């Protein structure tokens, strides 16, 4: 199989898997495409930086960084963690709820996002990215060294 320079050969493989939802119910088989999670997060971070520039007209300052969370991974972490850590992680749910109340902006039929910034520091912001109406990432831009979940 011939692949472009931008696509690794292993990313074009498609697997058939059985999906189990939180209730324990097994869904009908679905198609799965293997992915490199760190690479995906890197792309999400670049998207947020681009959207930040698009929305504000300014480049995200070097003093700030983007922290990206896969929403499904956060939900799984909430189920499999200590009570103290669960409290920290559950605050993310509240933040996601707050961002969801902002105007939803749609790009084509594949991508939509919400965002909000801190009035005291516009470079500190929250983003909710939706791909294909089901793959969701929650991202935060904040001063380097301030990790929300640390």
Write out key terms for the chains shown.
150 residues, two-stranded antiparallel ribbon, 3 helices, 7 strands
What is the CA-based Rg, rounded? 17 Å
Give the beta-strand count. Answer: 7
Low-confidence stretches: 1-9
Largest sheet: 5 strands, antiparallel
Strand residue percentage: 25-35%
Mean pLDDT across the residues is: 78
Strand and helix order: EEHEHHEEEE
How does the overall form come out from the CA principal axes?
Answer: globular
Major beta sheet, strand line-up: 3-7-6-5-4
Question: How many separate domains make up the residues?
Answer: 1
| Count of helical regions | 3
How many angstroms separate the termini?
Answer: 44 Å
Helix share bin: 25-40%
Structural class: alpha+beta
């Amino acid at each position: 199989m011939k692949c472009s320079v931008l696509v690794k050969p292993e990313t074009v493989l498609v697997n058939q898997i059985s999906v189990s939802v939180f209730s324990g119910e097994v869904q009908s088989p679905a198609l799965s495409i293997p992915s490199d999670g760190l690479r995906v997060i890197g792309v999400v971070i670049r998207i947020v930086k681009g959207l930040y520039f698009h929305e504000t007209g300014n480049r995200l300052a070097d003093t700030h960084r983007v922290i990206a969370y896969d929403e499904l991974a956060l939900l799984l972490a909430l189920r499999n963690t200590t009570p103290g850590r669960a409290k920290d992680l559950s605050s993310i749910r509240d933040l996601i709820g707050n961002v969801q109340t902002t105007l939803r902006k749609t790009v084509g039929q594949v991508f939509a996002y919400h965002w909000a910034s801190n009035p005291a520091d516009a470079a500190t912001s929250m983003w909710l990215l939706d791909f294909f109406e089901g793959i969701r990432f929650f991202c935060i831009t904040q001063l380097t060294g301030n990790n929300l979940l640390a």
